[in-house]
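[Q] Does anyone have a clean structure-token version of this?
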Amino acid sequence: MAVRGPGTDAGRAGPCGALECRDFDSLEAAFDFAVASKPLLVAVGEAHAQKGTTVPSSAKHFSEHVLPLLKGRASDVLVELMNPPEGCAKTTEVVRQKQEVVTRSQAKTDQSEYVALGERARALGIVPDLLRPTCADMDAVKAAGEDAVTASLQLIARLSETQATRLLARDAHTPGDEDKMVLIYGGAIHNDLHPPKERASWSFAPALEAYTHGRFVAVEIFIPELFDDSDSWKAKSFYKHYDPERMGGRTTVFRDDKTFVIVLPRGGKD
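[A] Here you go.
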């Protein structure tokens, strides 16, 4: 059983090697812990919901429980959905088909939940936006052929960096918004502060961490029902320390410097 500290709902979740790990009563408390340093950029990553998953997704938890917490504290949320110009619809459809090797295993509700996330943010006064590639961007992904998925991941990282930088610069010169957060919400491979060399071009995190002069945190929100023994999960530093029997009843945070991994309780609870 975790030991509670005075005046807080956080407890030590147990030995976690080089990582700091704590457990919390709620996602809200865990997220507040992650942004206690008052970052300017918060890059939230998830593992996309898969077909057959019966518990609420990370996006749904974020929309319902985290966004209300950030009302008045965040200016914008940039959501990882592509919104190309109407003039390149045919190319966009070809790109979509090339990406099916990745997306076919994902829940059909993924995109609609991202749209709902944006609508929820707007209702709270947090301005949502999508990634806005040009037709030339879409042509380049199409021309990549068998490497189209990699080209698409690189494009997501580049657009996220460019658009977030623009929002940060605007906030810095807008009275009342100077210290508000800009949020990015998308796949966890894009907010990696220390990506492996072969995936470095997929992550916007190092560039935005530098741009904000360190006022950056990466937060990953994971549903434990998605965990399996695949190499992609095993490669994550927190994975070997997560004990579902001991930690599965509460929200657990694994911290590695400016990266906070939040693992929700099992069964879709908060």
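[Q] Thanks! Anything notable?
[A] The CA atoms of residues 46 and 188 lie 5 Å apart.
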